[in-house]
Structure formats: structure tokens, C-alpha cells
Amino acid sequence: MKTPNLNPVATSQWYAKTNRVLLVVSAMTLVVFLLANFAPGPFDKLEPISPKIISALLAVVSLVYGAIGYRILQNKSFVMSGLISFALLFVLSMWLAAETIKESPIFLAGAFSLICISYVSGLTATIISLGAWLLVTLLAATGTIDVEWSGLTPIAIGAGILAALASLQSWGGLKSIKRKGRRKSTASIATSSGGLDANLLIASISEGVVVTDNQGVITVFNQAAGQITQWDPQEAIGLDVHSVINLADEQGNPVPRNTNPFDLTIAKATATNFDKGQLINKSQQNIYVDLVASPVLSEDGSTMSVIAIFKDISKERNEEQQRAEFISTASHEMRTPVAAIEGYLALALNEKVAKIDSAARSYLEKAHTSTQHLGKLFQDLLTAAKSEDGRLTNHPEVVEVGQFLDEITEGVRFTAEKKGLLLEEDFSGNPINQKATVATNGSQTIRPVAYVHVDPERIREVITNLFDNAVKYTEEGKITIGMQISDKDVLISVADTGAGIPKDDIPHLFQKFYRVDNSATRQIGGTGLGLFICRKIVELYSGKIWAESTAGEGSVFRVALPRISAEKAQQLLKQQAATSKFGSVPATVGSTIEPTKPIATQGLPIK
Q: Which burial class, exposed, middle or buried, applies to 442 when counting CB atoms under 10 A from its CB (0-12, 13-18, 19+)?
């Protein structure tokens, strides 16, 4: 039977353990040196067992490297970082032996015993043992307990060294046997055709597979993960997952721990998806990845480990970007000739410019309508492409929502009335789930002043688009534009009394090119991009947009935008005035902050 090769599994762990022992020994050396030479009172009795100045300096260097330099260097060369730790540990140990073997063998014996504990046990046991050793040393130095300082001979010290070397050699085998046992009990996979091991299956997966414990230490790392990250799987095992799976957002900024999928999965014990960001590999190259981290839960519901599967989607993202650039370029170039055709058709239809018979006029009117639709399609394609690749122009300003909506409503009123629809306003600003505030004369409603920080032209585009859709799909009744407020948000709504939207279509309304398939949409036509563009614009300002509808009872589209306080609005207004070329504020913003403003209203609150 072929003996499995356990060394690759233990290699990276060995380096990590060596650095931990370096930290333990250097900390012990420095603590004893400082207590013996600088602490007052009974600590003077520690001087006979104290390391000398050279050992203390070596301990400081080792401590700084082990805590900082090792973690910086391991990202570039894990082997080199571990070898430096080993070299410093060797030099420090030998120098301690040369300085203290005659005066304080108990110090050396304690150091070597803790080396063994550091390798065989975990970090917690090492800290407990270190505390116990320090306590015994202090009690002996103060005379509380009687210890034969010279009772430990060089033979005992040699035995401690041999024990440390034995634990160093056996540690990898012990850990591998434990892992093998766990695999047999929890992760082995067999088939009726005969015995496929889980490791073989994981290694054969074309996507990267990473398994960590609940401390974020990598325990499984397959070949595909190594190819994507450029880390050798043998080196990656035992490392902190954040040093190997280095994630960044789409702009290349590091992902903070509180939003990192591994930390979120461990903390919340739920699966986390990371599909809008990048992975920085070992060569500092940015790779777009799609990563899903799932927890392995214990009986009490806590996270035992995390299994993450990820793949390189850079090719798909590049192709998507190329498609977007093509659409953007084509739309931009085709808008010019389409606009020219539309202009010539408009001239042909102008009775003061050209004389045409009724039949020709009918054809030209249809051509003119189609050309306008084509121009709208190109404009929507261009806007959609810009919104996807971050090129959408955005100039946020302080906007008082009530006044802003009032201006929009007056501007679109003629469009609704032209179709015979009633346009109502509900700008009372009633707090959500609270009663309306009415003025004492009963004829006016108090409109609280609510501020947001957005680009008014972009939000105007959103509200106008929602209004146009309401007009298109409402044959009779009314359209209501309203505003509600809460402590954190301003809620803008556009409601209609049309035929409503089927329940199954509502979740897909804001997807690109999606249109409800019914007789009304087929007759009216459209690009299927309007609501997608609305969603992209609203998301620019960390807002939300959604639809509520019941078949036969109309629809309500709601836009929630983050609300800013009056104090914040004043501060931003001053900044706008200072940076404005003419030192003035846009017309959509009042120059002063008013607590309330009464306006006449025509409609009823939106349900």
C-alpha cells in the first residue's frame, strides 16, 4: 500500500507554527529582562535568571518581525518568511543558552517546554502555559515558593530540546491523521461504482474551492483556486484566508472586514454572495470573480467552517464591457442621422413648407412616429450603457422634494389632461403610517420641508418616466404624484388607475429589456429600458425603487431616497454657493430652510 505524502499538508503550517514559537520565546525573554532590570521591589531577585542585553535586543527584533514583518513578507514569499522566523528563533535560543545555561536553567527549560506546547497544542494552551510559567518564576523569585534554580542539569535541557524537535517532526503527521479522521466521518463521498474520495472530487472541480475554519484559516485549497490566485495550494493551507483571497470592490479598493463574504458568513451563519468585485492575485493582478461563501453549521447553529466556491469571470466582464461600448458608440453615431430624418419628416409635414396630399401625409406621419421611437430607443440604449459602466453624468445638489415635485407636476399636467386623465397631487408629506397634519383653516395641508442630495435632472428623468408609463397604460381615471417622509427616507410615488401588472411580472419590471407581455404593451410599444434606467439612477444615490400593483386596480411605483437634515442641507448649500461660478444656488433649491410651507392640494393620500 502506498503511503500518502503528508509533508505538503504540513509545510505551510510548520512555518506558521515556527513564527508563533518565535513570538512566544521572544516575549518570554523580553518580559523577564524588563522585570529583572527595571521593575522595583521583589523583582530584583529575578536578576540571576535574567537574559542579558544582547538577548533582549534579539528578542525585540524577533518580536517586531514575528508580529509585523512576517505577515507582510508571507504575502510575497511564505517560505522565505518562515525561514527567517526559524533563523531568528535559532539565534535567539542559542544566545539564551550561552548567556543563562549556568545561572538560570529553569528559564531555558521553561522556554523549551513552551516550544513543545506551541507545536502540539493550540494558541490558547500556549498562552495559559506561558502565564503559568511566568507565575511560577515570579513566585520563586520573591521567595514565596522554594525552587532549586540549579537543580535542572544540561541533560534535562537537552531532553527538552529533543522533545521540541520531536514535536516539530510529528506535528504534521498528527494533524494530518486528525484531518483524515474528520474527512472519513464528515466529508467522505462514495459512489456505487466504487469509492471516490472527497479530496479527489474537490481537486477535479474546475472552479476554485476554499474551505476555512471559523477563524478564517484555510484548510482546503484546490488546484483551480491556486490557478486563479497564483498561490501554491501547499503554501495556502494554514494561511489566513484574507491574505490569499484578497478581495476588492469594482474600483479596486480593498473590501473591509465587515463586508467581506468570509467574515459575514462566519458572523451571520448564512451564505454570502460576492459577484460585483475583484480578486487581487499573488502577482497583484485584478481579476473579476463570482464568489459564494456558505457556512458549515454545528448543532448549536454556529459556524464551524466556511466553504467558498469562486470562478474567474474576467472574460465575461470584458465581453460585457465591449458590448456596452459597442452599443454606446453605435447609439451615439446613429442618433445624428435619425435626428436628421426626423427633422426632414417634420418639415415635410409642415403645411407652410411643403404641399402633400392626404395619403402621403398619413404615410409620413407614420414614418415620423417610427423615427421618433427609433431616436428614443437609441437614447435609451446610450443611457443604459452609460449607467452600467459608470459614465452616467451626475451632479448632486440639495433638492427640496416638495417644491421639486410641484414643478414636475405642473410641467406634465397638460400630458395627462390631453388624454382625459385627472392629475392629482398628494404633497402633504404625511409621515408614513401617521396621520396627516392639516392647517387650522382646514383648506390647506402643511407640507414639511424634506431635503435630499441628488442630481435634480436625473431624478426628474425618473419621475417623468414613471409618469409617462402611467399615462400610457391608463385609459381612464387619474394619476397621483405623492410624497411621504420618514426619519431616514423621502418616499416619492406615482400611482395610476390602469389595468395593473400581473403578480409574476413585478419582480422583473426593472430588468433590462423586460416588458410585460399583454395586448396593451404590444399595442403601445416601448424599449424595455425605461424602468431599468430608473433603477440605475436611483441606485446612484443609495435609493430604492419598487412597484406595487393589483390586477384591475392600478399600480403604484415608489422611489425611496435618503433624506438629509436641515442642518446638513444648509451646510451643503453653503458649499454649493462657494464652489458655484456665480456664487448662486440652483433654482430647484430654496436659499433658506423653512420649517413648513402650506400649499393647496387637490388629491387624496395614496393608500
A: exposed
